[in-house]
Amino acid sequence: MGKSPADRAVELRELINYHNYRYHVLDAPVITDDEYDDLYRELVQIEREHPALVTPDSPTQRVGAEPRSDLPKVQHPAPVLSLANAFSKEDLVAWRTRIGKLLPERTTLDYVVEPKLDGLSVVLTYERGVFTMGATRGNGEIGEDVTPNLRTIKSLPLRIPADPDGPPPPERLVVRGEVFIRLDDFYRLNETRLKNDDPPYVNPRNTASGSLRQLDASITADRPLQLACYQILYGEGDALPATQWDVLHFLTGLGFPVMLCHSTHCDDLEAVLDYLEVWEPKRHELDFEIDGLVIKVNNLQISNNLGVVGKDPRGAMAFKFPAEERTTQLLDIGINVGRTGVLAPYALLNPVEVGGVTVKQATLHNFEDIQLKDIRIGDTVIVKRSGEVIPYVVGPVVDLRAGEEKPILPPETCPYCHAPIVRKEREIAYYCSNPDCPERLVRSIEYWVSRRAMDIEGMGERIVRQLVEEAIIHDVADLYYLEKSDLLHLEGFGDKKADNLLAAIDASRHRPLDRLLTALGIKGVGNTVAALLLEYFPSLEMLMEVSQEALENVPGLGPHTASAVVAFWEEDRNRRRIEKLRAGGVELVPVEKQPASDRLAGLTFVITGTLPNLSRDEASELIEQHGGKVSGSVSGKTDYVLAGENPGSKLAQAQQRGVPIISESTLFNLLES
Ligand code: IVH
């Protein structure tokens, strides 16, 4: 028997109040936002079905949590509201139907869709154009005065209009926005913390919140906080915008940072629903976290007249993306050994659904990270999955420890070959010390056959393991000595499959030298560096004899890679491997790359998004063949940004810098002109 609705409501209220306090007051949540939303939703549902159970102190009856007590308090000029959540398109359609009933028949509505930034809401007051006060949302009526802290945010205009020739501002203007941290900045901040032996921050949202709510503004000034504004909470004077779309433009005109380039106007709900599809892949390309989209009735008078339910205005809805962070039990750890011998620990989890996918394993990065975050076996851990990125363990929920959790230590011997584990100087990682470790061999063969290296089709991990386990190959060069009879007695191999594999291996005998150099797996030498090295030392013989000094003179080649190359050839086994490959019929084909034309000479391109015909690699190659350069980031040197579908933040950066944005077909035109 489950609990009665009354008992469950009491329990939910307690839980929600506790987590509210942890989140808003302590800045130290122990469950994810989505789990909180689930609890809240369940309570709303019970109270809706059993109105008699609603109590005045229910968390559904108030706006936010109490503000933290040590900062001065401020009364907001109007309630700083929250948003009701929609979790599906059906929820949005139901919302439209609900509000439709409150509007005169046949009222048409248009909407604005904005990203829902996962940050901290702030309220900014300007008197006669001067920033006089900034506050957190607090409980929605009373917030905390964080004016000096907000002043340290560089994108916050201290005076409006920011451009002296801009439009005159209202006498008194109160604007609402969100303070957040970009992912790049967040990672950089954590790198510094790790270097200083400080525990890393858990996520950008709480870091932003903690950074702003400091009594000492100089701490805030050191944190990379960003601002985006989206609402006029209060305005005095005439000529205030009448629609949300105009609000975004009005605020932009005054010099406020606004997410205009990520917002859109939709003529009807149908268009909104279509637009949601566009966002699904796009959200992962942003360099800041959003937890959904906000859909707002564009006409502000209609929106205001719709009123408020509890703390949620009827005129807007949050559309939440599926959860991307969950908590679950860490059952045990496993260890992968890579081709260089590096140990990569991963978590074995109690299966949990994260963002629509069941996750049983997640990476634990390395043992240093495990130690710093103090992750233990048996812990409840936060697991995160975003986009195509492999799920990873964010950290433990220390509050939920029972006391029996076991610390995780690096092993003393390799879990595959039992050779001693060693650590290299100035490196975080632990390594298997045995160059003949069978697991390392499997991984290096997998790398050898991969597309970017020797590209041997049909040779997956399973076959590689079979060949190593049956002791048919002991080195990548043995691939070129395989005979059909070797394959035929392997499980799953018939005549045809064996022929196909041998043909694929044969085809790889004629790959250009840069592929072979990549396949050798020298530390730091991927496709690009391999091609660069061969430009200066066009044969393997030259590369084998080259000095560290000569390598360091290659522009763009760092000292670490230079010494890795020298060290590689110092090992006899590597030189012997080349001989064995040569004898096995592997041709060492020189790379010949004649530029097709110099039409793009002197031009630097940045590529973003998915192009209609070319892959990114193909586009880069095409540009380079015609004398152009391709760079990874937009800078003062960028001449064009080549953008396809679902472009990333590079597009916005290009817009900001006024760099021309071109499509694939314009690129083709440039080549033909
Ligand atoms: S509008 C009446 N717009 O989401 C206006 N909120 O879950 C209500 N948020 O407390 C808010 N981005 O802190 C609005 N573009 C956006 C937003 C946004 C983030 C936050 C805001 C709010 C929370 C509600």
Percent in helix:
25-40%
CATH class membership of the largest domain: Alpha Beta
Runs in which pLDDT lies below 50 for 5 or more consecutive residues are 63-67
The fourth-level CATH homologous superfamily of the largest domain is: DNA ligase/mRNA capping enzyme
The computed structural class is: alpha+beta
Q: What amount of the residues lies in strands?
A: 15-25%
Q: Give the terminus-to-terminus CA distance.
A: 76 Å
What is the fold-level CATH name, i.e. the topology of the largest domain? D-amino Acid Aminotransferase, Chain A, domain 1
Mean pLDDT: 88
Shape: globular
Summed up, the helix count is: 24
Tell me which ligands are bound. 2-(butylsulfanyl)adenosine
Main beta-sheet annotation: 5 strands, mixed
Strand order of the largest sheet: 2-13-10-3-9
Overall tally of domains: 6
Named CATH architecture of the largest domain: 2-Layer Sandwich
Rg calc? 30 Å
- Total strands: the figure is 26
Give the key terms:
Helix Hairpins; binds 2-(butylsulfanyl)adenosine; 673 residues; five-stranded mixed β-sheet; single chain; OB fold (Dihydrolipoamide Acetyltransferase, E2P)
In words, what does this structure look like?
The protein is an alpha+beta fold and 673 residues long. The chain folds into six domains: 5-61, Helix hairpin bin (Helix Hairpins); 73-320, 2-Layer Sandwich (D-amino Acid Aminotransferase, Chain A, domain 1); 325-422, Nucleic acid-binding proteins (OB fold (Dihydrolipoamide Acetyltransferase, E2P)), CATH 2.40.50; 438-508, Orthogonal Bundle (DNA polymerase, domain 1); 513-583, 5' to 3' exonuclease, C-terminal subdomain (DNA polymerase, domain 1), CATH 1.10.150; 604-672, BRCT domain (Rossmann fold, 3-Layer(aba) Sandwich). It has 24 helices and 26 strands. The strands form eight sheets. Strands 2-13-10-3-9 form a five-stranded mixed sheet. The chain has a five-stranded antiparallel sheet with strand order 16-15-14-18-19. Helix 22 (616-625) links the parallel strand 23 (604-608) and strand 24 (629-631). Helix 1 runs antiparallel to helix 2 and helix 12 (438-449) packs across helix 13. The chain is globular. Residues 63-67 have low confidence and may be disordered. 2-(butylsulfanyl)adenosine is lined by residues 81-83, 114, 116-117, 121, 178, 230-231, 294, 313, 316, 318.
